[in-house]
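Sample intake — PadR family transcriptional regulator, regulatory protein PadR
Collected from: Gracilibacillus ureilyticus
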Amino acid sequence: MNVQFKKGALELCVLALLDKKDRYGYELVQNISSKIAISEGSVYPLLRRLTKEEYFTTYLQESQEGPSRKYYQLTEKGRSHLYELRDEWQQFTKGVNEIIKEGVGYDKG
């Protein structure tokens, strides 16, 4: 898949996954990589940046399987940003799909 497509979508994916529940970094990586081919190394810098921009807060929680895990929790600022990105994404993909349909169409393979 095109790297630029992934870069644009990764932030939205991370925010969307944190909308319903807090998650730790590796859990986010596993969830996203099960649907989109990404490298683990692409998620952690994004988490640091979004935390710095105050879209998340973090906390440590004991783990039964090893060291404590850093969990990310979406802030209200982060939730607003998520909804804004989601709306932009929906408009963007709708427009792109309309252009594709007008151009090459879906049935021409």
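Post-analysis note: The first strand starts at residue 23 and ends at 24.
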